[in-house]
Design goal:
By secondary structure, the chain is of the alpha+beta class. It has four domains: 242 residues, 2-Layer Sandwich (Beta-Lactamase); 82 residues, no CATH class; 223 residues, PPM-type phosphatase domain (Phosphatase 2c, domain 1, 4-Layer Sandwich); 134 residues, Histidine kinase-like ATPase, C-terminal domain (Heat Shock Protein 90, 2-Layer Sandwich), CATH 3.30.565. The chain contains 18 helices and 27 strands. A hairpin with a 4-residue loop joins strand 12 and strand 13. Helix 11 crosses helix 12, helix 14 runs antiparallel to helix 15 and helix 16 runs antiparallel to helix 17. The longest helix has 70 residues. It is extended and about 120 Å long.
């Protein structure tokens, strides 16, 4: 069989399979998912409605709770005297409250009799009623008994009130306990169930849908006899399943409870309305598939037959080249791009054979391949390392790292994993250099990442890395490392050491090496008992870790840099530099200068610093994508400091306008220099300082007052951002100092 015939058959078989699969999906899968989709859409609408109702009922609860302290301070006589004023305030606090009352505990009154005053809405007026005993025996009502039994506020089940509200309602009642610990009365608020009618009328997800209210027991409420009469099976669906059939029509039923008032919102949608979209597209879709299938087979067949002709000519040329005829002319096949590339490849192959025959004795190609592989390995290794700069605003931590290999690839490692409460970190030094060390570094990194994501303790992580290396380490390589995590909420550092250089901690007591047990490097002895230490780590503390490439850096006279000199350098850098980035850069420059830029070993540094939760300090690139993490940081500190939502929005708007203005308009001679953003909360004022390294540019110098009374097309372009910043801020100032543009914005909370 020819290749073209065989390919045509393959295409036809595949097309038939796809055609049948599409039909099956349309007929079975789509139809099967209609009920689930309808239920999902309806539940979303019901959930939105329920969420709105819960928030309104919660507001009623809060208003009642605000009323109770007033009643708690009054004795029985005073309560009766001021009841009208108290109830009027409660009734006017929320428009959905149909009525409210104060029901005395009979045992707490001097006469031991029932007495209740009830204030309710009567069309456009407010009516005050006095209830009790024979006219309204409220002590037998469920809304009265339940809160007393629970000792706290509670919503009643829906009921038809015949003495006060005269309608179907639910009641929230809260007992009032006086200073002596005695329950004197209950404050109540009634909500008419009829308020839900308007919401139910809007809850129609599909044509012909019905929405209704049930009790938690699956019965229609007493106030909705018409729905109960017309659709009795809807209530039974609450207990028996999701679908019911009424008068030959199948309905899909969905129910969502309103937990606060013990009712259920139900919606029934006709299945034919849900399935109408699928029904309409079924026949056109089948016609399109059939026509497309026929056209596809015809086009593929014609294309394959025509494509085989130049392929046959190329096949003959390949046979000639295989026979040693390297001077043959490859036929042109420009009609088809793939065959044209094949012809070009054959021409290239012929030329390459001629060229490599003459160059076969040279070994430069092998050396170049090795160098290329090393460069690729270096790029891959660097890509495995996380970002060298990171700020974890929610944890109030900043991190900076530096890594430089003595060769193209090395065995040093730093890494970190951000969990919900803690920041895990590791610094490691694999024995040896080059590709074997780099491969072992990748192995250790993967083990650390997996263990950190499981939130193991540092000593457990080190033990797991050790056991895995001992089980599979044919070259007897070992690794020194330190693993730990910082929990800023608990203000602690937990760290475990495995034969690594001592870390340096700067705290309120000064800057010194951490006295950690040396322990064995991992990969030497299985089941070694590693330990860990817990150290206080508060705002202002800084942890600096490194590999021995720093302390053992050599100058031209082969003298080590040394631990003592390194401690002095780190102490000076932490004391004088403003950020972890500057600390690492300062130490790196010192080591580079000492070793005359000639590293004898891999060098890695990892610096972590905790900052107080009273502001934000971030370094931003000249990219509008940096606005998203900045807005997130402002939103988080607003939640932490309990700022008003409108005040947070104002800060975010001012910060976004200022940073965007710098990104788009500040001349930047050195784009690698970041924008420095600082926000501080000082004495009911927020002070924002933004610095950039661009040429001198004062955004306040040329701005003009924007005439907001003009139409948009009549206003001049530009100036609106600065105009908004001035209007929203208490003051804005600009200065150019130390080759930096410095913009200071003050907002009053």
């Amino acid at each position: 069989m020819n290749l073209s015939d065989k390919l045509s058959l393959y295409v036809m078989y595949v097309s038939i399979g796809v055609f049948i699969a599409i039909i099956l999906i349309v007929e079975f899968y789509a139809a099967k998912s209609e009920s689930e989709q309808a239920e999902h859409i309806t539940r979303l609408l019901q959930t939105e409605m329920v969420s709105n109702l819960d928030s309104r009922f919660y507001a009623v609860e809060q208003n009642v709770k605000r009323t109770v302290p007033e009643a708690r301070l009054l004795d029985i006589a005073q309560i009766k005297q001021h009841t009208g004023d108290i109830l009027k305030i409660l009734l006017e606090s929320d428009s959905i409250i149909e009525g409210c009352g104060i029901a005395m505990i009979p045992e707490a009154t001097p006469t031991g009799r029932e007495w209740m005053e009830y204030l309710c809405r009567d069309k456009d007026t407010v009516t005050l009623k006095q209830l009790g005993e024979t006219d309204y025996n409220y002590t037998s009502c469920e809304w009265y008994r339940t809160p007393l039994n629970l000792g706290e506020g509670a919503w009643s089940k829906p009921y038809e009130d015949k003495g006060a509200g005269e309608c179907l309602m639910v009641t929230y009642a809260l007992p009032v306990v006086n200073a002596s610990g005695e329950t004197t009365c209950e404050v109540t608020a009634d909500i008419a169930i009829s308020m839900l009618d308007e919401e139910l009328h809007r809850l129609i997800p599909y044509p012909g849908s019905y929405s209704f209210i049930l009790t938690k027991d699956g019965e229609f409420l007493e106030g909705y006899p018409q729905v109960q009469q017309d659709f009795p099976s809807f209530a039974s669906a609450f207990q028996t399943g999701k679908t019911v059939t009424m008068n030959g029509t199948e309905f899909i039923c969905t129910f969502t409870p309103v937990e606060s008032i013990n009712i259920v919102i139900g919606t029934a949608s006709p299945r034919h309305s849900v399935a109408s979209v699928t029904s309409r597209i079924r026949l056109p879709l089948l016609l399109i598939l059939v026509i497309g299938f026929i056209l596809l087979i015809a086009v593929v067949r014609m294309t394959l037959v025509r494509a085989m002709q130049p392929l046959k000519r190329l096949t003959q040329s390949a046979i000639d080249i295989g026979n040693g005829n390297f001077d043959i002319v490859i036929p042109e096949t420009r009609r088809y791009a793939d065959l044209s590339r094949l012809g070009e490849a054959m021409s290239f192959m012929k030329d390459s054979i001629n060229r490599y025959i003459a160059e076969i004795k040279e070994n430069t190609r092998a050396r170049e391949q090795m160098e290329s592989q090393l460069r690729i390995a270096r790029d891959i290794q660097r890509s495995l390392l996380p970002a060298p700069e990171a700020t974890f605003t929610s944890k109030r931590l900043r991190l900076s790292a530096f890594q430089e290999s003595a060769l193209e690839v090395g065995g040093d490692l730093y890494d970190y994993v951000d969990t919900d409460k803690s920041l895990y970190f590791i610094i490691a030094d694999v024995s040896g250099k080059g590709i074997p060390a780099a491969l072992m570094m990748s192995y250790v990194k993967s083990l650390f990442h997996f263990a950190a994501q499981q939130k193991l303790q540092p000593s457990e992580i080190v033990a797991r890395i050790n056991d895995n290396m001992c089980a599979d380490n044919p070259n007897n390589m070992f690794v020194t490392l330190q693993v730990g995590y910082i929990d800023t909420a608990a203000e602690k550092l937990v760290i475990s050491n495995a034969g690594h250089n001592p870390a340096i901690l700067r705290s309120a007591l000064g800057c010194s090496y951490l006295n950690l047990p040396a322990a064995l490097a991992v990969g030497i002895l299985p089941n070694f008992p590693y330990t860990q230490q817990e150290i206080p780590f508060v705002a202002g503390d800084t942890l600096f870790m490194y590999t021995d490439g720093l302390s053992e850096a050599e100058n031209p006279q082969k003298v080590f840099y040394g631990q003592e000199r390194l401690l002095q350098t780190v102490t000076t850098a932490i004391s004088t530099q403003p950020s972890t980035t500057a600390i690492v850069a300062s130490i790196g420059d010192e080591i580079k200068k000492y070793s005359a830029n000639n590293y004898s070993d891999d060098i890695t540094m990892l610096c972590l610093s905790a900052f107080p939760n009273d502001g934000i300090s971030m370094q931003l690139r000249y990219d509008v994508a940096e606005l998203e993490p900045l807005m997130t940081a402002i939103r988080e500190i607003g939640i932490s400091d309990k700022w008003d939502a409108d005040f947070v929005k104002k800060i975010m708007l001012v910060a976004e306008e200022a940073v965007t203005n710098i990104i788009h308009h500040s001349p930047v001679p050195h784009p690698e220099e970041p924008i420095e953003f600082d926000l501080r909360n000082e004495n009911e004022r927020v002070v924002i300082t933004i610095q950039d390294h661009g040429a001198e540019f004062n955004p306040l110098k040329h701005d003009t007052e924007v005439d907001t009374t003009l139409d948009w097309e009549q206003r001049e372009i530009g100036g609106l951002g600065i105009f908004l910043m001035r209007r929203l801020s208490e003051s804005i100032g600009y200065r150019y100092h130390n080759h930096k543009n410095i913009l200071t914005i003050i907002l009053k909370s």
